[in-house]
Write a structure and sequence with these properties.
Blueprint (H helix, E strand, L loop, with lengths): L1 H24 L18 E3 L4 E8 L3 E10 L2 E6 L3 H4 L7
Antiparallel strand pairs: 1-2, 2-3, 3-4
């Protein structure tokens, strides 16, 4: 029962933070909360004009990739690349 409650609370908190960050990035200003990949870097692999993958080497997890989609000129991450992205955020055993 406690586990379901914790999961429900985490989903609510994550959903609220996504909604707030969406509002911050869509306010018409120059600020974004998301890492903006350098599309001229050799780490950037373009899949199409509005979709790409940012590659990086992690000490513990090896080669990692994160999928980005461009929305209104801002690159947004749409997929995490594994447990390395959420280990510090979500308490998991």
């Amino acid at each position: 029962m406690k586990r379901k409650l914790v999961i429900a609370l985490l989903v609510a908190v994550i959903g609220a933070s996504l909604a707030l960050s969406s509002g911050v990035t869509n306010d018409g200003g120059e600020k974004t909360l998301f890492f903006q990949p350098d599309t001229s870097s050799p780490r950037w692999k373009s899949l199409s004009e509005d979709v790409g993958v940012w590659l990086r080497e992690d000490e513990r997890f090896g080669l990692r990739g994160r999928l980005y989609v461009r929305v209104d000129g801002v690159w947004r991450p749409v997929a995490t690349d594994g447990a390395g992205d959420v280990l510090g955020t979500i308490p998991a055993k």
